[in-house]
Design goal:
Layout: E1 2-4, E2 16-21, E3 27-33, E4 38-44, H1 46-49, H2 51-55, E5 62-66, E6 73-78, E7 84-89, E8 93-100, E9 121-129, E10 135-140, E11 146-151, E12 155-160, E13 167-172, E14 178-183, E15 189-194, E16 198-203, E17 209-213, E18 230-231, E19 237-245, E20 248-255, E21 263-266, E22 272-277, E23 282-285, E24 292-295, E25 297-302, E26 307-311, E27 319-321, E28 329-334, E29 340-345, E30 350-354, H3 357-360, E31 362-363, H4 366-377, H5 385-391, H6 417-420, E32 429-431, E33 434-436, E34 438-439, E35 447-449, E36 461-466, E37 472-476, H7 487-490, E38 495-496, E39 510-513, H8 542-549, H9 564-573, E40 588-591, E41 608-613, E42 616-627, E43 630-640, E44 646-654, E45 658-663, E46 667-672, E47 676-681, E48 692-693, E49 698-703, E50 709-714, E51 718-723, E52 728-734, H10 736-739, E53 744-749, E54 755-759, E55 764-768, E56 773-778, H11 782-790, H12 804-809, H13 831-849, H14 852-869, H15 872-888, E57 905-906, E58 909-910, H16 911-922, H17 929-945, H18 947-951
Antiparallel strand pairs: 1-30, 2-3, 3-4, 4-5, 6-7, 7-8, 8-9, 10-11, 11-12, 12-13, 14-15, 15-16, 16-17, 18-19, 19-20, 20-21, 21-35, 22-25, 23-24, 23-31, 25-26, 26-27, 28-29, 29-30, 32-33, 34-38, 36-37, 36-39, 40-41, 41-42, 42-43, 43-44, 45-46, 46-47, 47-48, 49-50, 50-51, 51-52, 53-54, 54-55, ...
Helix pairs in contact: 11-13, 13-14, 14-16, 15-16, 15-17, 16-17
């Protein structure tokens, strides 16, 4: 760390009350007293940071000086984009300055004062008049939507930065001088601190006072000129200026979680005047564990002329500097690169502190910071001006009256999940309009704590009571174990979920329910239940992993499966919770040897193995018959009676060891090491086909759920699917073109002959005979990863018959990004286009594999995404497509002769029904009401013309 005090930065020996660094880091502004007026000076940063630049006389020091304020300037603040500078002073005015070209515009303030020539020209573009007293502090909102000013007239005025000098609202409620104001980094709140010994938090949705905090300030006196409070860049902590604890001055830490005030920054001997958080969330590796830490940095200045720097990851301040000035420290400012801190004093001087990355850490990128905001609050740092306009929009359609006040609910694939959804482990809690999680890294520090209550873990319901001494007692309700939702949530090591509802002063018992975050889309794809290598990926408690990953227990004594391929195939073919055969059938797959792992090579089945369908078992016994011609393997069919008595039905022998086999309702397929394949009747053992031979031995075999189709995959990647009753090949192709060094670990054949395969590298495919090509189902493609991780439920969907696409995608081995970066779940720059591209591809796959239930779901999800983040052009394109030929037939110049009559439906689902689903989602957003009304009218016309839309009895829109 270096400290430098440039003595050439001064206001003619008058006080400097405020300082602020430009977002570019190339200049900074100071505000204070001039010779006979208020003064604002813009300085060059280069001579402050560099000795060479300071010594170079050709490098200017003063860029511009403005003496337009009639009285002392108390605050200067740059806008977030750096285009404007705001200054407020004792003349009750707020002035907005903007840079102009040299020699252009002229006007008041377009030139430097003191007789010197200005290097830059800044002119006052607007003068904001509204306060009845001195303006003491200013703050720009995120994205420069508003600017707030506070004054000795006890008010805070919020100005519309898009339409100066328009006043958005005057916040009234303080009974003393308001000396500081700051914004929540996601724009939900604005906070103010006053001489009336209170701090107030105001909601930006309706500008009402959301919370008033008085306890830490009850002993404070009006001994400071300003009270500059600050909000942490992650939004979790609001740190006030002058507070008291045990008779000593502190900087009060107010946690967003419950607005608790049980921690302070202590150590200053006199009242704290200003606090300023570093602009970025910082990260570095922890010294001992080498794990990634994320934390915030805070500078604190006080009347005792000392400055302290705190990191929330440390137990003590990073540095404390005593007697930095001859008078009180009045303002602080961090540079955007994160390593420079400027501070000013009432003695008319400034100081520059330069840090290194080793001392402070590395700032998170804006993208990563917005990803964190999205996960914590359901939105990024940029205030959605469109959403603000929508909030103020007049509702023109009565359909919007009932839904516009509620949060849009994402669609669910399985209807029962609507009642069974559980909160994600990254628990949410609601603070007014906000839904957040709480970082575990508390602002540590020589911190006085009045209590040490730990945040409760997320639960579905909890009973919370408060005792007379203010302590909370929570009785949790049992919920089933839940996955960690993959690395997406625990990618940041310092984020610990919290799920409590705060703001209640009642001592009565209250029930807290966790609701689904509105901006998240819980969907059908679960986190990968198991990797292709057999490695479990669930993040359960270590004590529970063995239990959770073990195969289900059966009543009858059975041994564990030998082949993980068979184990996966068993789950894929008929999970007990989804596909259930007739009452007298029970699909089983058991062997008697220790587990082995798939290698992509045909491996001889060791020992005895059997598979069963219903009452019939097919047993394999390799190398059990010794003859002079060689060793034979036995294949035996037995029936198991209700009394569990086995009766042998048939027996046959095979001249080569068996490497894989499968059993259906009527047939069994047996594949041998010598590349041969046998299809037999499971009741008689007679062959259905002659012995077939391929170029390499089979590694996987499977029947469709209706047992009419059988398929095999060989070592070399040859895929065959046969229609057994017709004794004909249905599909003959090769997987070699997509294997690229991997091998097939799962094979499934649908009732329509559509093959689904999962490779050892986690990718999955399905083959389309119409296109004569493999369709990509899952891979490491970033769009697919983003889509699958961002669209998942709490339990895997393993119903291959009804939801084939979701089931196959649930077996992928791809998770979120590595744990040293934020999960790429939400990024404002690309998430919308990526999500829509993914959903549209899901729709096309559903069409090709004939999965109507999933098709309807993904159309509904498309409507949900378009309603939240879509454009008008894209919405019209989707709705026009769903109108289809029915819409085109309205044109009298167009005949229906060339139109496909099936264009009115997809997979038997009416396009009008799909259009209704999309429109129902648009109805949740007021901004789409005119498009909604326009297309709803067209849909009503078509339904009336077609006689009620194909006989549907349901109302047009629900």
């Amino acid at each position: 760390m270096k400290i430098f005090q440039p003595n050439w930065v001064h206001h003619d020996e008058k006080s400097i009350f405020s300082i602020d660094i430009h977002p570019s880091g190339e200049r900074f502004a100071t505000g204070g007293q001039g010779c006979d007026s208020g003064r604002v000076v813009i300085w060059n940063m280069a001579p402050v940071l560099s000795e060479q630049a300071e010594a170079n006389k050709s490098v200017p020091r003063v860029l511009c000086q403005m003496d337009n304020h009639l009285a002392c300037v108390n605050c200067v603040r740059w806008s977030g984009n750096g285009l404007m500078l705001a200054s407020g002073g004792d003349d009750k005015l707020v002035m907005i300055w903007k840079k102009t070209l040299s020699g252009s515009g002229g006007g008041i303030g377009a030139f430097g004062g003191g007789g010197g020539k200005s290097v830059e020209h800044w002119r006052c573009i607007s003068t904001l008049r509204g306060h009845a007293g001195d303006v003491l502090d200013l703050a720009w909102s995120p994205q420069d939507r508003w600017i707030a000013s506070c004054s000795v007239d006890n008010t805070i005025i919020v100005w519309d930065a898009q339409q100066f000098p328009k006043i958005v609202h005057v916040l009234k409620g303080h009974t003393g001088l308001v000396k500081g104001v700051t914004w929540d980094p996601v724009g939900k709140f604005v906070a103010s601190q006053s001489d009336d010994r209170s701090l107030k938090v105001w909601k930006t949705t309706d500008w009402s006072c959301f919370k008033t905090i008085t306890e830490p300030f009850e002993e404070c006196g009006g001994t400071t000129h300003i009270l500059r409070l600050s909000w942490s860049p992650d939004g979790q902590y609001l740190v006030s200026a002058h507070a008291m604890n045990g008779g000593g001055p502190t900087a009060q830490i107010i946690e967003r979680d419950g607005w608790k005030c049980d921690k302070d920054f202590v150590g200053h001997r006199k009242a704290v005047t200003c606090v300023r958080f570093h602009n970025s969330i910082l990260k570095r590796s922890a010294p001992k564990t080498n794990k990634l830490q994320q934390y915030c940095c805070l500078a604190v200045g006080a009347r005792d002329r000392s400055l302290s720097i705190w990191l929330t990851a440390l137990q003590r301040p990073l540095v404390v500097i005593h007697d930095l000035f001859q008078d009180s420290i009045l303002d602080l400012s961090w540079s955007c690169d994160g390593y420079t801190l400027l501070t000013c004093s009432g003695d008319g001087h400034i100081a520059c502190l330069q840090f290194t990355a080793q001392e402070l850490g590395t700032p998170l990128s804006e993208e990563d910071k917005n990803i964190l905001y999205q996960r914590m609050y359901g939105k990024n740092a940029n205030i959605d001006l469109t959403a603000q306009a929508e909030k103020e929009m007049i509702v023109e359609n009565s359909d919007f009256l009932n839904v516009s006040k509620s949060n849009p609910l994402p669609p669910t694939l399985i209807p029962q999940q609507q009642q069974q959804q559980q909160p994600q482990l990254g628990g949410m809690r609601q603070d007014g309009a906000d839904k957040v999680v709480q970082p575990a890294s508390q602002p540590a520090a020589a911190i006085k704590s009045s209590s040490s209550l730990a945040a409760p873990t997320p639960i579905l319901k909890q009973i919370e009571t408060k005792t007379a001494d203010g302590k909370r007692r929570i009785t949790p309700m049992f919920i089933p174990l839940n996955d960690d939702n993959g690395p997406a949530l625990h990618a940041t090591n310092n984020i610990m979920p919290s799920s409590i509802e705060f703001g209640s002063k009642s001592s009565e018992t209250s029930t807290v329910e966790i609701k689904q975050r509105a901006h998240e889309e819980p969907t059908i794809i679960p986190p990968p239940a198991e990797r292709a290598t057999g490695e479990p990926t669930s993040k359960l408690d270590n004590r529970l992993k063995k239990m959770a990953t073990a195969p289900p227990q059966k009543a009858e004594p059975m041994t564990v499966p030998t082949d993980p391929q068979q184990q996966q195939q068993q789950q894929l073919s008929a999970p007990s919770s989804t596909i259930q055969p007739a009452a007298n059938q029970k699909l089983m797959d058991r062997t008697r040897q220790p587990a082995t792992y798939p290698t992509g090579k045909a491996t001889v089945i060791q020992g005895h193995s059997f598979k069963a369908f219903g009452e019939v078992r097919v047993q394999i016994q390799n190398n059990t018959v010794k003859t002079s011609y060689g060793t034979l393997s036995r294949v035996v069919g037995v029936v198991v009676t209700a009394q569990r008595v086995e009766r042998k039905l048939w027996e046959t022998v095979v001249g080569s060891p068996i490497v894989c086999f499968a059993v259906g309702a009527k047939y069994a397929i047996v594949c041998s090491q010598d590349h041969t394949i046998r299809m037999v009747d499971i009741k008689t053992g007679t062959p259905v086909f002659p012995v077939l031979s391929l170029t390499s031995p089979a590694v996987l075999s499977a029947f469709s759920s209706n047992s009419q189709l059988a398929g095999v995959v060989t070592e070399s990647g040859i895929l065959r699917i046969w229609s057994v009753p017709e004794k004909a090949v249905l599909l003959s192709t090769s997987c070699a073109e997509i294997m690229s060094g991997s091998f097939v670990t799962i094979l499934h054949v649908s009732d329509k002959g559509m093959p689904f395969i999962v490779l050892s590298n986690g990718s999955s495919y399905s083959y389309c005979r119409k296109l004569d090509s493999w369709m990509l189902i899952n891979s490491s493609d970033p769009v697919i990863r983003h889509g699958l991780i961002g669209n998942k439920t709490n339990a895997p969907v393993r119903n291959i018959k009804t939801y084939p696409l979701s089931t196959i995608q649930s077996y992928g081995s791809f998770s979120g990004p590595k744990t040293n970066s934020f999960a790429e779940l939400h990024s404002a720059a690309w998430q919308t286009s990526a999500a829509i591209a993914f959903i549209e591809n899901q729709i096309k796959i559903c069409e090709m594999i004939a999965s109507p239930a999933e098709l309807k779901y993904w159309y509904s999800m498309l409507g949900f995404q378009l309603a939240l983040n879509g454009s008008e052009e894209k919405i019209r394109q989707v709705l026009d497509d769903l109108l289809g030929a029915s819409h085109n037939s309205l044109d009298p110049c167009r005949t229906l002769a060339g139109d496909d009559a099936d264009d009115r439906s997809v997979l038997g689902i009416s396009k009008q029904l799909l259009m209704e689903d999309v429109l129902n989602h648009l109805k949740t957003q007021t901004k789409w009401q005119r498009i909604y009304t326009e297309y709803l009218d067209q849909l009503k016309f078509l339904k009336e013309r077609d006689g009620g839309g194909g006989g549907r009895d349901k109302p047009l829109m629900e």
